[in-house]
Amino acid sequence: MEKKKYCIEVDGTIKYYEAGTTYQQIAEDVQGDYPHQIVLAFVDGYRLQELRKRVKKDCGIRFVTTADKIGHETYKRSLCFLMVKAVHDVGGHKNVDRVRIHFSVDKGYYCTVDGKVRVDQQFLDKVSDRMRELSREKAPIGKRSVHTDEAVELFHRHGMYDKEKLFMYRRVSKVNIYNINEFEDYYYGYMVPDAGCLKFFSFHLYDEGFVIQMPTQENPETVPAFEASPKLFQVMKESVAWGDLQEIDTVGALNDMITRSDMREVVLVQEAFQERKIGEIAAQIAKRPENKFVLIAGPSSSGKTTFSHRLSIQLRANGLKPHPIAVDNYFVDRAHTPKDADGNYNFECLEAIDIDKFNEDMGNLLAGNEVYLPIFNFRTGKRDYERLPKRLGKNDILVIEGIHCLNPKLTEMLNDENKFKIYISALTQINIDEHNRIPSTDGRLIRRLVRDARTRGSSAARTIGMWASVRRGEEENIFPYQEEADVMFNSSLLYELAVLKQHVEPLLFAVERESEEYLEAKRLLKFFDYFVGIGSEYVPTNSLLREFIGGGCFLV
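Now predict its structure.
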């Protein structure tokens, strides 16, 4: 009996396929029309499907490649699964206690292996060879759905205690388990259909572990050379150590703290740790009397404003008199502001700042002269000026905040000995589990969703829609200069996502299914299913988190 055939529209072309045909088979038919590897499929415009799924009705398909954001993340996630599988194959299951994927380093992830294995170049070469062998074999990445109780028991049996703890707090009835041959694991998000898709990666010994380097979304078939960022790495490593010390290294561990401990004390300990760090930075500045300019830069939603206030308080405690200055007040007149490729004003490029005027004013202040500082009028698009002049006294110090503050070109006319440069970012300290990261960009996006809704009335869809542009600006104007900093400060708090959950979920639920931002909103809602939420009553009024949820003692 002839199988039923379905009408499938692929990129505007009508094709007919038998019932039960996988999306992967259809993808293979059209792969030649795509410049990059197909990894997922959009079905009927809004349903994202893995390629292992089968055709069940007439539909339209738009394929997703490794050059798309979702496809790129799918590639990286699948590559991590293959890497963990290969580590167990090479080291032996009995010798590998756990593989930890910690955080981003350059274009890859920093990982460590606990157990009776020595991670050296020979070991990494064997892991790489095993991954390429599985890739050549096109080893299938299977998927099965099991009851949550069964998954908890399975994770316990395999010694995956972080995942066991994670799913003890999940209210869903089913869990998707992925496998390569006999090796099973849980991953948050979609996977490629087989290891044959995973050809591009490299390994690099680094510190106490290694980095698995991956292609970028812009060049998905090229693995870039590894470039270390030692200062940023040390801050991230210290953050991981702090989470381990507090026994809050994963979401399951945080949920345990929320349900079984005094959260008031947990919150206060995290806040005290940050205050100590801010105090140490202020003490460093105070020991260098030649420093007259404290330059603070960091990506969106890092908490720069609140950090500046708290640092100023600590500077006062060290006998200094800080004065805040926002680089945004040195915007060129609106008529002279550069425009981007879409014809919109580009306020994030360096050319939007009157560098000459900024350096002239800072130089005059350093020389002891009186200076009338500008205040940019965003309504008129021009600069006004303060009514009273400013002059630096012996103990006066300028605390300057702006996205370009670490770019040497902004302060090129000022002597380096007069500058103290700080890089601040919200570098996520906990992960979902040992193999599933929480990207720092997700943490910052969630912060911004909450803040923009509260202070600007922005919908979640609007903020999500702007995020790609914000990220491009950070990549161009902030991240290349982060290693220029004298110190780095991590503004992320171990408990913050449990608090932000209550604020951001209603915003995400409001995103319309038909909107382009719906898929991202849905992903974030699924992400928050892992968390036990807590209220904000224990969050101190001077907390960096108050910059986003409100109720702080600073006017931010």
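DSSP finds 15 helices and 19 strands in the chain.
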